[in-house]
User: Which sequence fits this backbone?
C-alpha cells in the first residue's frame, strides 16, 4: 500500500491463526474485566450521589395518607384528573416499603408501595380539594 511505503511497516512477529485467535481472546477477556471494574466503581458513585438526596419516609399506624392512583377516564384530560385519592388510614407496615391502608373502616384493605403514599395535610393537594 502507498501509505506503508511512506510510513513504513511496524516490525512484528508473524503469528499463526491459532496463536492470533488465542491472543485476541485473552485481550478481550482482560478488556471485559477492566470494564466490569469501572462499572462497579461507577455504580458505587451513582448510588452514593442518589443516597445523598433520599430522605427515608415512614408512616405510623393510624396516620392519614394520600394514595396516588392516576386514573384517566375516557374523554377527560389528564390535566383535570385527580392524582391522589383519600385520605387513607395506615393500618400497619408490612415491610420497609409496603403498607396496608384502608379508606374507611368498612372498605377493603390494600397493600401499597411507599412510593404511592404521601403524607396527608389539611388543604388542597396539587391545587385540587
Assistant:
Amino acid at each position: 500500500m502507498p501509505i506503508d511505503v511512506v510510513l513504513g511497516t511496524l516490525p512484528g512477529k508473524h503469528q499463526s491463526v491459532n496463536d492470533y485467535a488465542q491472543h485476541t481472546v485473552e485481550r478481550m477477556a482482560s478488556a471485559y474485566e477492566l470494564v466490569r471494574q469501572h462499572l462497579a466503581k461507577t455504580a458505587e458513585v451513582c448510588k452514593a450521589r442518589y443516597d445523598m438526596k433520599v430522605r427515608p419516609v415512614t408512616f405510623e399506624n393510624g396516620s392519614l395518607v394520600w394514595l396516588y392512583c392516576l386514573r384517566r377516564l375516557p374523554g377527560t384530560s389528564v390535566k383535570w384528573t385527580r392524582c391522589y385519592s383519600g385520605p387513607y388510614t395506615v393500618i400497619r407496615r408490612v415491610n420497609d416499603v409496603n403498607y396496608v391502608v384502608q379508606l374507611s373502616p368498612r372498605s377493603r384493605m390494600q397493600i401499597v408501595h411507599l412510593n404511592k403514599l404521601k403524607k396527608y395535610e389539611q388543604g388542597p393537594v396539587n391545587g385540587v380539594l
Remarks:
- The first strand starts at residue 64 and ends at 68.
- The chain has a mean pLDDT of 86.
- The domain at 64-119 is CATH 2.30.30 (SH3 type barrels.).
